[in-house]
Amino acid sequence: MPVLRFDNVSKQYPGGQQALSDVGFQVDAGEMLFVTGHSGAGKSTLLKLIHLAERPSRGAVLFDDRNLLRVRGRQVALHRRRVGVVFQDHRLLADRTVAENVGLPLLLQGLRRGEIAKRVRAVLDRVSLGTRATALPAQLSAGEQQRVGIARAIVSEPALLVADEPTGNLDPTLAAEIMALFESLPERGTSVLVASHDLALVKRMRKRVLVLDKGRLVDDIQPEDLAE
Ligand SMILES: Nc1ncnc2c1ncn2[C@@H]1O[C@H](COP(=O)(O)OP(=O)(O)OP(=O)(O)O)[C@@H](O)[C@H]1O
């Protein structure tokens, strides 16, 4: 069952910039894959169309078989519960604790405090931050801050996690830790799509790789076809 499908998707930004041209692919439930390409290839744009930060100019993005063009107004917030997003700069609230940052999506959903506390504790344990719940973001290392961002993205148990250069600021050891965390998500029902220009890291992971070049999907490499 595909969780995500791009059907001939093009995106042209106002001002004429063609960021994606006729892109088509699908992601199955429980899959983890990468999208790679040079700077400006269209990776961020592709992810933005999935979490509805942007809309396609042509073609359709389907999520759970539903055309996202039909997702409007209040339904956008509901859609975003099903798609977790991780950014390179993690975008944590500086004046809120780790637990408050992670619990924020659940608070916005109207869950009760007791339920939020329970879920936040469980997800912080999963990202090995169980002892840092009351810390402020500035008191954490870069790798820990990124793990808080991931905890916040998965606390709603999304069907898909999209991550834009999630290890861009991290050294190789921390990057490997983050990737191991991502790899554990599909078995819990969350598919994972990671945008990265770091080819060495992408190759090491031995997952399916979508390759963008100037907005075109030029390759869709299966793990078994990745060169040694
Ligand atoms: N809001 C915008 N308005 C106009 N053009 C944009 C906008 N966002 C991106 N672009 C352009 O669209 C193209 C694709 O950009 P995008 O950010 O998707 O690429 P990318 O592969 O993520 O690059 P990077 O690795 O540098 O983040 C680029 O030419 C970029 O300049």
Helix content: 25-40%
What is the H/E order?
EEEHEEHEHHHEHEHEE
Q: What structural class results from the helix and strand content?
A: alpha/beta
Mean pLDDT figure: 93
Low-confidence stretches: none
Q: How many E strands? A: 10
CATH superfamily of one domain: P-loop containing nucleotide triphosphate hydrolases
CATH C-level class of one domain: Alpha Beta
Shape label = globular
Subunit structure: Homodimer. Forms a membrane-associated complex with FtsX.
Function: Part of the ABC transporter FtsEX involved in cellular division. Important for assembly or stability of the septal ring.
GO molecular function: ATP binding; ATP hydrolysis activity; transmembrane transporter activity
Protein name: Cell division ATP-binding protein FtsE
